[in-house]
Amino acid sequence: MEKIRFSTEIWTGDAALQGLSNFSDQRVFVVTDPFMVKSGNIAAITDQLSEKNEIQIFSDIVPDPPITKITLGIEALNKFKATMIVAVGGGSAIDAAKAMKFFTQRIVKPQAEITFIAIPTTSGTGSEVTNFSVITNSEAGVKYPLVTDAILPQIAILDADLVKTAPQNITVDTGMDVLTHCLEAYVSINANDFSDALAEKAFQLVFENIERVSKDGSDITARQRMHNASCIAGMAFNLANLGLNHGIAHAAGAKLHIPHGRLNTILLPQIITYNADLARDPNNLTAQKYCNLARLIGLSASNPRIGIRSLTNTIIQLRRKLKMPDSFQSYGIKQELFEKFKVDIAEAALNDGTTAANPRKPTKEDVITILEESFTRN
Ligand code: NAD
User: Fold this and answer.
1) pLDDT value, residue 339
2) Which fold has domain 168-375?
3) In ligand 1, which atom is closest to the CA atom of 261?
4) Does the Cβ of 92 fall within 6 Å of ligand 1?
5) In this protein, which residues make up the domain named Fe-containing alcohol dehydrogenase-like C-terminal (predicted)?
């Protein structure tokens, strides 16, 4: 039996943030990054909380949140005796807040009841609705996924106004992360009709809107649709998990420090080609599913070869239009550094929890080949 449950309440549409005014007598611990404070996004949120609440802001989060920041956050939130956590930011702030809540309730104060609200400011990770958090051990150069329903936010607030400040590079990196979530959830070994429906819708939304938000970040209609796509894709992969693309991205991100979405995008064409595995059986299920997605966005897929080629070519063209690097080398990674970490990355990717859901079981040699093919322009 499979149980499908979406436990996070989603507040969306005009004035979604105003719902915060319903809370009172709370000790609200806001987890965010310095830009969110500087940009006024935090004030826009705390202004909604009535004076009957006590508020403390922890704004030390950095991209790919390291364990040291989580530890500092746990100390601060316990000293403050928080009854509510509001995470505001991209995947890094939300994931860090998830880990702070988890370790507080697991180790520091097992009885603590803490309401958890996630407010994403990037349209990318879908972390506001997932039971997934990615924490980095910077010294060891390793990313650890923490996967448990105990970290699911109770409420996610989707307000695209908060994303408008995101510059073009962050907009497209995070948007392509959403596309990767759709593709991986759709071909995952755990995919089902429910996750497929979510992945298909989010995939279409990204294709219809990503160029618009890349060209004009103030296009609020396209921003809201990308924000919805990000959340819907999060719901899809919360059911189906991800795959090798994310397994490699987690491993390589910890070593090479390339933004998460950018890294996923560099790998996408190679991963699709590898998973489609046309040489073994052109009509295998994964190839057929990629062809479904190709058809959904109006591409020709009269047979698997044509479908896979049109899908990978379209992603390569999209990447070009979005001015994204097409290889590790064009991102600026030096050959020497790449060679130094290549094998470590491949080994860590095979151990990553997301790789387990990949439709084709990779060997270390397979991963090294994908990495090498992604090193130079493709
Ligand atoms: P991020 O949170 O790391 O933020 C990247 C940069 O964008 C930061 O400098 C931040 O200040 C800036 N930023 C965020 N919102 C902005 C805005 N509105 N305007 C201007 N600047 C803004 O980026 P991300 O891509 O959202 O998150 C990546 C992290 O999420 C990685 O650690 C990745 O491993 C993790 N992740 C988590 C999940 C999950 O389900 N939990 C899924 C995928 C990725």
Assistant:
1) 97
2) Dehydroquinate synthase-like, alpha domain (1.20.1090)
3) 25
4) yes
5) 171-374
